[in-house]
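Support case: glycine complex. Customer-provided input:
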Amino acid sequence: MKLLVVGSGGREHALAWKLAQSARVQIVYVAPGNGGTAQDARLRNVDITDLDALADFAEKEQIALTVVGPEAPLAAGIVNLFRGRGLKVFGPTKEAAQLESSKDFAKAFMKRHGIPSAEYETFFDAAAAHAYLDRQGAPIVIKADGLAAGKGVVVAATLDEAHAAVDMMLADNKLGDAGARVVIEAFLEGEEASFIVMVDGKHVLPLASSQDHKRLSDGDAGPNTGGMGAYSPAPIVTPQLHARVMREIILPTVRGMEKEGIRYTGFLYAGLMIDAQGNPKTLEFNCRMGDPETQPIMARLKGDFSKVIEQAIAGTLDTVELTWDRRTALGVVLAAHGYPDAPRKGDRINGIPAETEHAVTFHAGTTLAGGKLVTSGGRVLCVVGLADSVRGAQSAAYDTVNQISFDGMQYRRDIGYRAVSRKH
Ligand code: AMP
Ligand code: GLY
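Agent response - structure generated as follows:
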């Protein structure tokens, strides 16, 4: 069978890499893909991003299953379009994707269904938002309602920063329509974890737990990024916490969507904040897998993932049991010069070693220029190491990182530090 993965990041490389391991899969097309998916003999890049053209391609090539990586095509209705044309696709409809594409939708939904999350209010009007900030005080969190490519959340330590964020979004329209409405919510303290499940409309299949590192620099310093590294499993997600998150957050979300007439299908990612007493609250929903969480998660997943996707599309996820490599997988993101503000493109990448049982390198912002691999985006590579301990997985990943070079390469040297301190 032929499969299609939509997207071009490290998440999509990892999804395609895993799907291509199935003996029944001839080829996985990746649209548009990157320099890494271009080099893998089992994967083939397709230079299409227009949704109608993608549906034409899927029809013409008789694609058996399509998996959508990023939020933008989901929010634009790729699943509605493919289904309407009788094409098998895994992801949420445009309506269901509002859990990610509108923070106000997600917050109001959580309130209606009693799903734990920070207190909030939504504003269109800058003066009313400023007055609310003055009543609430800092720290406080300001979020653009719409998709803003990671620039829509300001965690304000002071009231000055909070007022500036409101002005940026509501008065100066710096984020366009995405920031025309803002959610202002209480600042939550604790440790974050990523809780990702697959949903077929009714049944929920949890994936292995993971934890991301959002800040650019060691010790969680520096600006927010799309994610500088991730590992799986995340020891903070104990079996007890797992059960609570399923009971208090995930299942009420899936049931609530069903009750409201918006059946949820696809990956569902709850970003959690876990307080010192171990109570989870929902920071956000994403209607897709995480990047870079997908890279270590796929590195640990055993079995034929194409069959799991098939069951998910058929609505029979209740019959699926996933098996995981018992090792820890730990992914280190190598970012370009200038990331996250103004990543430089065109730097020549050297030294990526071949995949082994202990390490695999997924590509994101890479492209082949005249047969040479060069940087083409902010997050360039994600090097995943696997070992029996978190420290061992760190060694496996960083031993590989040390072989790779490009001008301006930036990376964190402490990926996994929370898991290391938790275990000792
Ligand atoms: P989001 O896109 O909503 O996940 O926000 C991006 C990041 O901002 C999260 O990963 C958190 O680190 C931080 N954040 C979001 N909401 C809150 C909150 N209510 N309290 C503290 N930090 C938050
Ligand atoms: N790693 C965070 C995200 O994918 O949103």
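The first strand starts at residue 2 and ends at 7.

Case will auto-close in a few days if no follow-up is received.
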